[in-house]
Amino acid sequence: MPQVPPPALPAQPASHVPTSLQAPAIERAVPPSKRLQRVAEHFHSQGELLAAMREQFETEMEPMQDLLVRQSHAMQRLMSNLDERLRPLNENADGEESNLHALESRISAGGPDHVARAFQPYLEDQRNRINSTRTQIEQQRIPFSQYGEDAREAVEVALSRFDHDMDALEQNLAEQRRVMMRMLDAMRSEAFAAVKVYLDGRQEAIGQIASAGSTDPQEIGRAMQALRNEVEGMARQSDHIKQVLDKTDLSDRQLVSMSVVGPRAMAAPPTPAAPTQPAMPAMPALTMEDVDGASASSDA
Known about the structure:
By secondary structure, this protein is mostly helical. The chain has helices spanning 34-109, 114-118, 120-159, 163-187, 190-211, 217-235, 239-261, 288-299. The chain is 74% helix and 0% strand. Helix 1 (34-109) runs antiparallel to helix 3 and helix 6 runs antiparallel to helix 7.
């Protein structure tokens, strides 16, 4: 015999979902801490400000740095030209000094006789004359060297306009460094470490209770109280820890009080008042005579 196909199941609407299946949990975005966000925004804004200001300052100061470089190159060329002009005098002084050394050697070779003694003052005069020539040559360089230094100092004087502002920026930087180090010291302090451990422990306890499927406020309150006892002693020595405990205690009490009071019924919304109707005149009561009269009229 041919096999009879099983009866087709009735079609279900698209919105039908089997009751045994549950919709996957939706990850909710965690709102950022206002204070953590403030710290991040501070460093981000400061970094952007420094980058933008540094670029603009370099753009404005680049011509001054270029001016110093051009001044240096010009003075080097100028001194090179001067050395070239003074080269014959230097060569002459070198030649005279070499001849003087040769003359002294030849006279000294004859021994310390009366000739050597007689020409000793002459040799000293020649040596002094050569030294004087070299001094005069060097003095020709001094005004040009001083001129180059003065040109550089003129740029420094032009830039001195910003000395007061730079002093203020350096003092501000020193103050920022002091405040930042104070914040880091506070973040690394024993009190703040205890606060972090306490809050992390509370979160761990809440996570375990939630994983166990419990929603009992009393159980949550007992777990939080046990964690509180561990840091209660430090709260007497730290106002910061006391403020944290005060905040968490208030939160715990509000949650536990809900289990004591129990759920509250929602108040029914007030019924709107009916519009006022004008008073109707009272109807006279029916009598037997009226009923008999109505029956007789019907029979006629």
